[in-house]
What does this fold into?
Amino acid sequence: MNFKSLVQFATAYATARRLDRIGSRTRIEALQRRWLAELLRDIGQQSRFYQEYAGRPFSEWPIIDKQVWMGRFDDINTVGAKRAEVLDLVSHAESTRDFTTSWNGFTVGLSSGTSGARGLFMASPAERAQWAGTLLAKLMDVSILRRETIALVLRAGSTLYDAVQALRLRFVYVDQTLPWGQIVGSLLKCNPTIIAAPARVLRLLADQGVPLTPRRIISVAEVLDDLDRREIERRYGIAVEQIYQATEGLLGTTCEHGVIHLNEPHILVEPEWQDRERTRMVPIITDLKRRSQPVIRYRLNDVLRVTNDACACGRASLALAGVDGRRDDVLWLDGVGTRVPIFPDVLTRVILRGTDELRDFEVEELGPGHWRVGLAPMPPAPACARLREECAVLARALGAQPPRMELTGVLLQPLAEKKRRIRGRRALQCAS
It folds into this structure.
């Protein structure tokens, strides 16, 4: 990290530390309004895609999704990058596993594509320093001068993460696509004080009793459910924290009470409610600090559960009861003249309640009202019958026809792929 980047990093860190514990909703919203005005002014001048919206109210700027963000990549970015050229660079990095590649000094990368389409992302050196400073401000529970070894197990590396290495922090990237023995060997060799890895990697480490002694464990890149959390915490004796991050930016982190808070005021969230009770939403996000590849009114494919309870940490930033996964992780059953959504968190609770000693499960929607439910270990016949009845009771309580269920073992899945325990075939429709 050169001197300029170090100054940018330190400034971002100090600012984020100052803003992290804001206890006033009014202050958060005032900062968002100020930063939003600056963002719309800059992007309206610099992005060909947004020029026609310059000077218009924010509500008239278009809501976009990944298809638009990628399809209009050349017009949306403000630095003259061409999608074909950047895609060639990141595709080469993926094949060679050399993630030091950059485009004219900009960090570039490729998402995993679990939503059905892979997304390009890019960040300037200043944005890289901003991201690193903000992330560490959210995660460092003690002074940044403390010596730490941070092991990050991910499918792909990035020079974004290189910016985390500062002062006495040592960052170790562990390639998730390597054979499992090499992943374990790398972790044992570096003996990290902090491990950040997908939930299924953390669960494997716990199941195999890998003798690591981290003081913090952070789940990234995948939904962390209660089944995995319980086993990880049982093995290592510490609470599992979470980072909620996507190609589109750093979206949220857990506080000291284990509650995920969205990264306000740095991002603005417009909720697209999915139920009448307004407990679940699809977020439409605007990153108020990103300029090279702006993220403005971008509809994510995630379903978030919100809570109206004030968090004991005192932060006024929006708190989540959970991240339920993708919109297409919602299953649908036929009701009377309508389709009824079955949300992942509700179904998960039923499965865990209906079967004893369950260590893993998955649900795949094979067709309308037809599910394959994988269980490990396979329960005895009475427990399987009880699970079928529990799911039927849930369906009838929601006004739907019970599903047809095939009970199988859990299918093997490559470690480098994201774990999605519940996988639907149809996109979630906003409930009216």
Remarks:
- The first strand starts at residue 102 and ends at 103.
- The chain has two domains: 3-327, 330-423.
